[in-house]
């Protein structure tokens, strides 16, 4: 329906001339920079492949004597781990971005909206009630819980008078703590605290071939988010704007929630929660290239992958041969960046 | 006799009732299921009960005073990251001093040092809170919550840096639980609590004035800066005590303080504080009793407190307590 | 043709818009005026399906707004509300480009880009097109929002207090631009205005509301009479003829 009606505005010649120059990527997100960032992340991924207790180096891979063992380590453990890091980082960051658009608040992400905690409550429920289910079904149940938990979060937000931008994440964190308490209670009762630890602390040390592939599903969801990026940008401008542009706001919210819930459930089920990454990365990207999701999602994906890779590498190098889980490292770095964002924005948000 | 009882005002009657209930809880806790072995059971349970009393007192008093200082019923020391800071302090000392040095040091000395650091932190917090213009409650709240996450992550980071396993061993030494109270720690804690209470007692009437808000308090001649910084120091000591004895409990203080305010319906700290303490004791001892004896659930009390406390927090927000 | 039939809106017990039936002229600039709380914004929001009706129907070109698919309506009618608290960090050009969304569904063509540039040009936004919304003044932001709505290229353009936070120069330029859209493009522009004199100088038709009902309908000249205005606002307002236009003096 983009046919030009007879009464369209008389456009000055100059406007036409300029419109050509707009076709190339606009300010703030030049493609070369993004490519550069992508290369840097690839470099990190390469580094990640070479770190570990079992010695793997490019030399070893090429030397005939060590070749077979090195390749085996690489294929069974290192490559899956690196892939899992990249996929989880990408999808969690983009999920955070979507949530920020939907809640129209810079401080929400799966970790500050009860999403992750309700997902692990869901996992616990499946483990207790239907232990025989395949991993895909378990994750689906977890996604259902995550969606219900996040919807509850949004519902509570509506009921809170004088909603300030800063109270929103507090509500989410407390709601998360409530879910967490419920989960811990049952986990304790049924001696499942060990499994609970695995879901709540992001840790990639046990990622092996055959145990992470579900994360590709999260990646597909991220691609879907990119395809419908414009809808999220529109929703981020508010309900009235969305309706004016002929879109259904509730439907966009439902779609976004579904994506976020499924991504979170998959990540929690496979590698555990990585706190604050969905908050830190989109906020930094927003400062760099703005909030047009079409433009920012690629950045968020690339930097998200880089952030998680970096946290994992730090966790592996700092205390060799032991490992510090990526969730712990990300918790420290993430909350520091969060505090910085918070206090820097102080004068504007207050 | 009955005439004088009738003359008691509503809040006094409720206070008496709470006190009675708390005493009843202590009594039951000491005697239930003793099986006649009084010489063994009594001293053991007395130590346990003393720990609970101390912790309940520390949490209740510190929360009520803190809420008076920040003029808000939603913020508590625990929500502002006080007790996770204590946790971080423990891990930090362990990391930098090394486990062997740490083990050779006197528990009492260590504890004193930690409390001193906590008081310093409260001074920093005080500066940040009240200098350079008043901050919004919302910012305070979110900053506190995130600080809590930061301290928690940092201390688990440090714990991982220390060789795994070593920490678990030392944890027993530094975190006495209700079931295994360390007599030394208990004694130092009691002394510290008593000291802080004496300081707090002298500020009690000023606290009532603080309730009217900073500007009114200054107008009425209260030295706001000095009063507040002293109160925060008291809070820091009490939080250290309670965290050292049982570890961080995020929402218990919130629960107790708001229930106390709701039950007593008096603005005077002389009424609110005892009520809060009684409620804390009832909650901790009564909760433990009910869980152990009725449901045989073991040590799940903290989790249940977090659950209900969290619900209360959200309901407070929904009723507009941050306005 | 926009037609409201027995439209009402209640919040709890209060009736904000009370059984309004009216037809908006097919072309030209129509202003809605009235005291605070008269139900002007509520009526506009209901006409543009941003707010559900408590009772009644609104027809846009014969389509019931409550039942017509949102995207079909978005190509016929554009609405800008009063409070536009967009927190997203979008550039002005990004924002205006979203005005083309109903047509291009997020894949702007060269033609769409031309519309965008035209709208930026007409509202004098070219120098700040690359800036982020949160770096702009209130008036600049307001112009960007109006540009987006105009870029939507709809026959009906509904604006709730478009002169909000504009200085005199930009307010006049905005009214001229809206006048131009009505005159050269044959649009139907509906405005909620507070300044009687802008309504008097720039509109073809005026609707006055009071207490949730339509109190007056007619041409600006019919409106700008002391007895009519006293009826609407409950105060005495002097009318002077300045340069052939009726100007209200209500400062004393």
UniProtKB/TrEMBL annotation, chain A:
GO terms for cellular component: plasma membrane. InterPro entries: ABC_BtuC-like (IPR037294), ABC_transptr_permease_BtuC (IPR000522). Keywords: Cell membrane, Membrane, Transmembrane, Transmembrane helix, Transport. GO terms for biological process: siderophore-iron import into cell. GO terms for molecular function: transmembrane transporter activity. It is a multi-pass membrane protein. It is found in: Cell membrane. The lineage of its organism: Bacteria, Pseudomonadati, Myxococcota, Myxococcia, Myxococcales. Its main location: membrane. This is ABC transporter permease. The chain crosses the membrane at residues 33-58, 78-99, 135-157, 164-188, 214-232, 252-277, 297-315, 322-343. It holds the Pfam family FecCD. Belongs to the binding-protein-dependent transport system permease family. FecCD subfamily.
Automatic annotation (TrEMBL), chain B:
It comes from the Bacteria. SUPFAM superfamilies: ABC transporter involved in vitamin B12 uptake, BtuC. Keywords: Cell membrane, Membrane, Transmembrane, Transmembrane helix, Transport. It is a multi-pass membrane protein. One of its GO terms (molecular function) is transmembrane transporter activity. GO terms for biological process: siderophore-iron import into cell. Its main location: membrane. It is found in: Cell membrane. InterPro entries: ABC_BtuC-like (IPR037294), ABC_transptr_permease_BtuC (IPR000522). One of its GO terms (cellular component) is plasma membrane. The chain crosses the membrane at residues 15-36, 48-66, 78-97, 109-130, 136-154, 185-204, 231-260, 272-291, 303-322. The keyword Phosphoprotein does not apply. Belongs to the binding-protein-dependent transport system permease family. FecCD subfamily. This is Enterobactin ABC transporter permease. It comes from Corallococcus interemptor.
From TrEMBL, chain C:
GO terms for biological process: iron ion transport. It is a peripheral membrane protein. Gene3D superfamilies: P-loop containing nucleotide triphosphate hydrolases. InterPro entries: AAA+_ATPase (IPR003593), ABC_transporter-like_ATP-bd (IPR003439), ABC_transporter-like_CS (IPR017871), P-loop_NTPase (IPR027417), Siderophore_ABC-ATPase (IPR051535). It comes from the Bacteria. Its main location: membrane. Residues 2-236 form the ABC transporter domain. SUPFAM superfamilies: P-loop containing nucleoside triphosphate hydrolases. One of its GO terms (cellular component) is plasma membrane. CDD domains: ABC_Iron-Siderophores_B12_Hemin. The keyword Transferase does not apply. Pfam families: ABC_tran. GO terms for molecular function: ATP binding; ATP hydrolysis activity. Keywords: ATP-binding, Cell membrane, Ion transport, Iron, Iron transport, Membrane, Nucleotide-binding, Transport. It is found in: Cell membrane. PANTHER family: IRON(3+)-HYDROXAMATE IMPORT ATP-BINDING PROTEIN FHUC, PETROBACTIN IMPORT ATP-BINDING PROTEIN YCLP. This is ATP-binding cassette domain-containing protein. It comes from Corallococcus interemptor.
């Amino acid at each position: 329906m983009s046919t030009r009606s007879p009464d369209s505005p008389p456009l000055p010649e100059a406007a036409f001339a300029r419109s050509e120059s707009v076709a190339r990527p606009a300010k703030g997100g030049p493609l070369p920079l993004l490519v550069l960032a992508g290369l840097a992340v690839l470099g990190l991924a390469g580094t990640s492949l070479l770190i570990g207790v079992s010695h793997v180096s490019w030399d070893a891979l090429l030397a005939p004597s060590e070749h077979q063992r090195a390749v085996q380590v690489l294929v069974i453990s290192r490559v899956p781990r690196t892939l899992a890091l990249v996929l989880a980082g990408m999808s969690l960051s983009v999920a955070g971005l979507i949530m920020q658009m939907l809640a129209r608040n810079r401080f929400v992400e799966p970790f500050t909206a009860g999403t992750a905690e309700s997902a692990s409550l869901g996992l616990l429920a499946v483990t207790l009630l239907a232990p025989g289910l395949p991993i895909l079904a378990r994750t689906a149940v977890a996604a259902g819980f995550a969606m219900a938990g996040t919807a509850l979060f949004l519902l509570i937000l509506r009921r809170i008078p004088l909603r300030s931008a800063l109270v929103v994440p507090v509500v989410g964190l407390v709601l998360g703590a409530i879910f967490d308490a419920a989960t811990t209670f049952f986990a304790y009762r049924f001696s499942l605290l060990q499994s609970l630890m695995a879901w709540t602390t992001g840790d990639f040390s046990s990622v092996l071939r055959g145990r992470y592939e579900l994360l590709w599903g999260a990646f597909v969801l991220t691609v879907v988010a990119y395809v419908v990026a414009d809808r999220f940008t529109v929703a981020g401008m508010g309900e009235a704007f969305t309706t004016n542009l002929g879109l259904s706001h509730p439907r966009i919210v439902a779609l976004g929630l579904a994506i976020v819930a499924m991504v979170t459930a998959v990540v929690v089920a496979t590698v555990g929660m990585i706190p604050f990454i969905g908050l830190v990365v989109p906020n930094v990207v927003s400062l760099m290239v703005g909030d047009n999701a079409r433009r920012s999602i690629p950045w968020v994906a690339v930097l998200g992958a880089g952030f998680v890779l970096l946290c994992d590498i730090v966790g592996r190098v700092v205390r060799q041969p032991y490992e510090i889980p990526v969730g712990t490292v990300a918790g420290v770095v993430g909350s520091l960046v969060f505090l910085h964002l918070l206090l820097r924005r102080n004068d504007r948000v207050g | 006799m009955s005439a004088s009882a009738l003359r008691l005002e509503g809040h006094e009657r409720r206070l008496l009732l709470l006190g009675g209930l708390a005493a009843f809880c202590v009594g039951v806790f000491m005697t239930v299921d003793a099986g006649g072995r009084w010489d063994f059971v009594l001293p053991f349970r007395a130590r346990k009960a003393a720990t609970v009393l101390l912790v309940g007192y520390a949490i209740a008093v510190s929360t009520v005073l803190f809420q008076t200082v920040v003029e808000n019923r939603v913020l508590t020391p625990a929500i502002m990251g006080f007790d996770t800071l204590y946790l971080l302090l423990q891990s930090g000392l362990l990391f930098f001093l090394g486990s062997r040095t740490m083990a050779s040091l006197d528990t009492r000395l260590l504890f004193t040092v930690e409390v001193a650091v906590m008081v310093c932190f409260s001074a920093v917090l005080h500066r940040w809170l009240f200098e350079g213009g008043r901050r919004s409650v919302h910012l305070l709240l979110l900053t506190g919550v995130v600080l809590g996450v930061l301290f928690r992550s940092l201390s688990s980071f440090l714990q991982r840096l220390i060789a795994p396993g070593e920490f678990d061993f030392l944890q027993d030494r530094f975190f006495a639980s209700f079931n295994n109270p360390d007599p030394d720690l208990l004694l130092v804690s009691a002394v510290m609590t008593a000291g802080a209470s004496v300081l707090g007692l002298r500020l009690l009437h000023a606290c009532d004035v603080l309730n009217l808000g900073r500007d009114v308090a200054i107008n009425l001649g209260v030295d706001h800066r000095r009063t507040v910084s002293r109160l925060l120091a008291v809070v820091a000591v009490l939080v250290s005590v309670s965290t050292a004895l049982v570890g961080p409990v995020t929402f218990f203080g919130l629960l107790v303080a708001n229930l106390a305010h709701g039950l007593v319906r008096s603005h005077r700290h002389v009424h609110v504080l005892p009520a809060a303490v009684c409620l804390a004791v009832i909650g901790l001892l009564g909760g433990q009793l009910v869980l152990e004896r009725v449901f045989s659930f073991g040590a799940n009390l903290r989790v249940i407190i977090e659950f209900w406390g969290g619900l209360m927090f959200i309901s407070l927000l929904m009723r507009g307590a941050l306005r | 043709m926009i037609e409201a039939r027995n439209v009402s809106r209640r919040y709890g017990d209060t009736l904000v818009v009370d059984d309004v039936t009216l037809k908006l002229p097919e072309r030209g600039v129509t202003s809605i005026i009235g005291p605070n709380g008269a139900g002007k914004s509520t009526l506009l929001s209901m006409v543009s399906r941003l707010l559900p009706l408590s009772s009644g129907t609104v027809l846009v070109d014969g389509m019931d707004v409550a039942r017509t698919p949102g995207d079909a309506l978005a190509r016929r009618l554009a609405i800008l509300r009063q409070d536009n608290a967009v927190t997203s960090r979008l550039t002005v050009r990004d924002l205006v480009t979203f005005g083309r969304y109903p047509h291009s569904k997020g894949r702007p063509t060269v033609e769409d880009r031309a519309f965008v540039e035209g709208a930026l040009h007409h509202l004098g936004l070219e120098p700040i097109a690359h800036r982020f919304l949160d770096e702009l003044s209130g008036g600049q932001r307001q112009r960007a929002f109006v540009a987006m709505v105009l870029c939507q290229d709809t026959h009906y353009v509904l604006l709730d207090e478009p002169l909000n936070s504009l200085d005199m120069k930009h307010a006049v330029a905005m009214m001229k631009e809206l006048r131009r859209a009505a005159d050269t493009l044959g649009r139907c522009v509906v405005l909620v205005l507070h300044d009687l004199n802008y309504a008097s100088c720039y509109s073809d038709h005026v609707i006055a509301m009071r207490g949730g009902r339509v109190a007056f309908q007619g041409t600006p000249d019919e409106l700008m009479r002391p007895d009519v205005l006293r009826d609407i606002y409950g105060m005495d307002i002097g009318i002077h003829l300045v340069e052939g236009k009726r100007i209200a003096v209500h400062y004393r």
